[in-house]
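Annotated sample (chain length 288).
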Amino acid sequence: MAAEQSADALNRHYGRPDLLEAILAAARAAGADPASLTPDDLAPVDQFHTRGKPATVELARLAGLSAGMQVLDVGGGLGGPARTLAAEFGCSVTVLDLTEAYVLTGEQLTARTGLSELVRHRHGSALALPFPDGSFDAAWTQHSSMNIADKARMYAEIRRVLRPGGSLALHEVLAGAGGEPHCPLPWAADPSLSFLRPPDEIRSLIAAAGFREVVWRDVTAPSHEFFARANARLAAGAPPPPLGIHLLMGEQTPLRIANITRSLAEDRLSVVEAVVQVGQVDQVVQKE
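Output written by the structure step:
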């Protein structure tokens, strides 16, 4: 798929022209003040990944992120993880995303949380990062690589913008051994937007880009449990809360959640969290 076609397809899949208005109205319905929000107010909708905010905090601790670090969130969506890294870890975070509606909405949400000095939003591609070499102490990808076919180029670009000794923290959905996943999924209505590779291939691509593993963990089981609980609530007919990822996935939310739950159960998907570092490290902590 050509770059222009891919960008258009992703903007059609994720974009919603009234996204900001829908989120602010839902926040009001949930009892929050739309003019003065907290990251936790927004977490039900802007932590758009497996296991929500707890997974973000877990990964940040694994990566050793701390106050003053310059972090690039590649494919950072609405900026939920970035706002968590800023508010709870003191990081300065640049969020890059290809979906214009996410960038514009994320910028407004960041302003309403009072975090604009620490969190910035940029529109751009993970395959051509608009930053000079060695700009960041750490990079972050959380459920953002599934739509990217050229993963070798993505990891090479991330490596380019990291300083010596910099790290990449990733939490991603990868291919499982059980065959193609069931569509539609949260990140793709059909296979044309889904580019999954198995863990061994991803590890090889990361190593070829100049990284060494510090942590590599398979978190497929807790990911399945997370979605199984959500799927059970939907199957029982429980109404969604005002603020949630249904605002991003629309009327197909129950089907998308059912499909990712089934795909995880059938080993058609796997989920990993990892930390890799530029240059050689002494030890790999690995939990399969």
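Annotation: The two ends are 33 Å apart (CA to CA).
Annotation: The first strand starts at residue 70 and ends at 74.
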